[in-house]
């Protein structure tokens, strides 16, 4: 049914998906506007950090099954995996999805399948049909015809950074087509590499399912983060408290941190709030709690600086990624804390991120340094619990730890 598949967007989801399809000996053409990413992939290398992905991409490229370019070409199926951020007013920004759809519209042919993977507000899959119709009035879409020329479906990714290669295969997938035929066609595509169950639903339910999964996690994280604020006010060790409370057989409190980041949990709940603002009360409150946590951490740092014995002590912030052991800085609370600190404090500020060699996302007066250099700072702030931080000696530094017991490299 599918001989050629085009993946639009070669980032943290698109590239692993493209490589996985290519590993099943499908001809895969990856499309991305980033020329550096395209050139890197065509060399059989990767431009992101993800375990096992480098070997998968290298094998797919050298085997002739995967290539990358900047302009779409005809294919049997198109998978869209582009960013879906939000605007300053927290409303969804579908600019990238719309641009991706309009870029493939000229090369669409009768019988093609278009699948959206990007996490999106309810109704986005239907908008894809609208954009296709505007660009290609010669083609029918599922919102206009029961037997359309172009099949359209939604299948959200649900993988964990650091385990993407495994979870792309093993996790169950929700396939929501705009018609039953769309669902079946999309299911057939995913079954070329997914060993988990492909569950068929409608597009709106699939869209809401992805948002619900991340909103559920956000609410639970918010409980832990709010608990850390309460415990700080009452002079209670929150880590000890959670350890004790979790001995109850039906209690499983998560670990508080510097906030919530990434392109999923920190974003998706706002899509629900935007769609149903009067009803999404708990979801909104959870977002507000988690969005406040970085501000609370910043005030902790500034208070420590103000009460330090040295005038303008140096500060090293350990961890920039939005979660442990990855290089992804998207919506990272740690990154926001460091840059906000740079605005509020004129002393020396260092950032330590073992998974990032360089970045343009740091404020000009923040220096990205090695672990060894970071350990020389007067104040050390642990913002991300990367493996190996637990093996370091912080006894000579003033330590602010907002992530709990640190992990060793072993």
TrEMBL record:
Top-rank taxon, per record: Bacteria
Class of enzymatic activity (EC top level): oxidoreductase
Cited Gene3D superfamilies: Cytochrome c1, transmembrane anchor, C-terminal (1.20.5.100), NAD(P)-binding Rossmann-like Domain (3.40.50.720)
Domain UDP-glucose/GDP-mannose dehydrogenase C-terminal intervals: 316-405
Molecular function GO terms recorded: UDP-N-acetyl-D-mannosamine dehydrogenase activity
InterPro entries documented for this protein: 6-PGluconate_DH-like_C_sf, NAD(P)-bd_dom_sf, UDP-Glc/GDP-Man, UDP-Glc/GDP-Man_DH_C, UDP-Glc/GDP-Man_DH_C_sf, UDP-Glc/GDP-Man_DH_dimer, UDP-Glc/GDP-Man_DH_N, UDP_ManNAc/GlcNAc_DH
Stored Pfam families: UDPG_MGDP_dh, UDPG_MGDP_dh_C, UDPG_MGDP_dh_N
UniProt EC number: 1.1.1.336
Keywords assigned: NAD, Oxidoreductase
Annotated PANTHER family: UDP-N-ACETYL-D-MANNOSAMINE DEHYDROGENASE (PTHR43491:SF1)
Family matches, as NCBIfam families: NDP-sugDHase, PRK11064.1
Entry similarity comment: Belongs to the UDP-glucose/GDP-mannose dehydrogenase family.
Protein name per UniProt: UDP-N-acetyl-D-mannosamine dehydrogenase
Biological source species: Rheinheimera marina
């Amino acid at each position: 049914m599918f001989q050629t598949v085009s993946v639009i967007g070669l980032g943290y989801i698109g590239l692993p998906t493209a490589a996985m399809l290519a590993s099943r000996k499908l001809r895969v053409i990856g499309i991305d506007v980033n020329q550096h990413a395209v050139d890197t992939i065509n060399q059989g290398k990767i431009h992101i950090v993800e375990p096992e992905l480098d070997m998968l991409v290298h094998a797919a490229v050298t085997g002739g099954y995967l290539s990358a370019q900047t302009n779409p070409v005809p294919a049997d199926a198109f998978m869209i995996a582009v960013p879906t951020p939000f605007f300053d007013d927290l409303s969804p920004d579908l600019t990238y999805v719309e641009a991706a759809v309009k870029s493939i519209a000229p090369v669409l042919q009768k019988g093609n399948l278009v699948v959206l993977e990007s996490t999106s507000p309810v109704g986005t899959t239907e908008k894809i049909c609208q954009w296709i119709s505007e660009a290609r009035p010669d083609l029918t879409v599922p919102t206009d015809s029961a037997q359309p020329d172009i099949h359209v479906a939604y299948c959200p990714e649900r993988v964990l950074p650091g385990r993407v290669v495994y979870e792309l295969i093993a996790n169950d997938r929700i396939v929501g087509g705009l018609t039953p035929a769309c669902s079946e066609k999309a299911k057939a595509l995913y079954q070329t590499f997914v060993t988990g169950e492909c569950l068929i639903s409608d597009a709106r339910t699939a869209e809401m399912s992805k948002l619900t999964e991340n909103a559920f996690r956000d609410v639970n994280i918010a409980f832990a983060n709010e608990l850390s604020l309460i415990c700080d006010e009452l002079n209670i060790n929150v880590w000890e408290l959670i350890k004790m409370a979790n001995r109850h057989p039906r209690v499983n409190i998560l670990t508080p941190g510097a906030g919530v980041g990434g392109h999923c949990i920190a974003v998706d709940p706002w899509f629900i709030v935007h769609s149903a603002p009067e009803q999404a009360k708990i979801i909104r409150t959870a977002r507000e709690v988690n969005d406040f946590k970085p501000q609370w951490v910043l005030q902790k740092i500034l208070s420590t600086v103000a009460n330090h014995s040295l005038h303008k002590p140096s500060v090293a912030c350990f961890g920039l990624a939005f979660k442990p052991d990855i290089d992804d800085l998207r919506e990272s609370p740690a990154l926001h804390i460091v840059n906000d600190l740079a605005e509020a404090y004129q002393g020396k500020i260092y950032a330590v991120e073992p998974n990032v060699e360089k970045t343009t996302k740091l404020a000009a007066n923040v220096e990205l340094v090695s672990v060894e250099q970071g350990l020389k700072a007067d104040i050390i702030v642990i913002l991300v619990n990367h493996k190996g931080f637990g093996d370091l000696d912080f006894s000579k530094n003033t330590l602010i730890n907002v992530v709990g017991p640190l992990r060793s490299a072993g």
